[in-house]
TrEMBL record:
Superkingdom of the source species: Bacteria
SUPFAM superfamilies, A to Z: Ferritin-like (SSF47240)
Protein name: Ferritin, Dps family protein
Lineage, uppermost ranks: Bacteria, Bacillati, Actinomycetota, Actinomycetes, Bifidobacteriales
InterPro entries membership: DPS_DNA-bd (IPR002177), DPS_DNA-bd_CS (IPR023188), Ferritin-like (IPR012347), Ferritin-like_SF (IPR009078), Ferritin_DPS_dom (IPR008331)
Amino acid sequence: MTLSFVVPGLDEAASEKIIAILSNRLAQEQEAALVLKHAHWNVTGPNFIAVHEMIDPEVDAVLAQADETAERISTLGGSPDGRPDAIVRQRTWKGVDLTGRRPTADYLKALIDYYDVFIADDRKAIAELDELDVISSNIIQDHVQELEKFQWFMRSHLE
């Protein structure tokens, strides 16, 4: 990895580690937006409109998280990679296997499972970033708070 610069207070090795962690988070954030949009388009059933309309703002929220993560990578002297092949290359998590039009409960259960992994991966990144860069850690902490809130919405919808 070639850095454009190193921010004051960090060395090159730490910056590279931080950028690698954030690049992984960026890929999962971008994928999550795609997974959510897929569910938004394909949910069916009696609760269709409620779930359809609940998902779209979360797509926007996750895309905003991805933008913030990418901008942090740039701030640290790195180059964020937002291409589809970067998502695949960075992928260390299980995706959502649902395809086609399905009942809202099927998609919500799959998204809840996806969010379990997404949140756990973010929490692991926070622990690693706490040792390297509290600023980057705080960014991901804010993201987790939003993800956990939406997961609560999905769980509550199924109760």
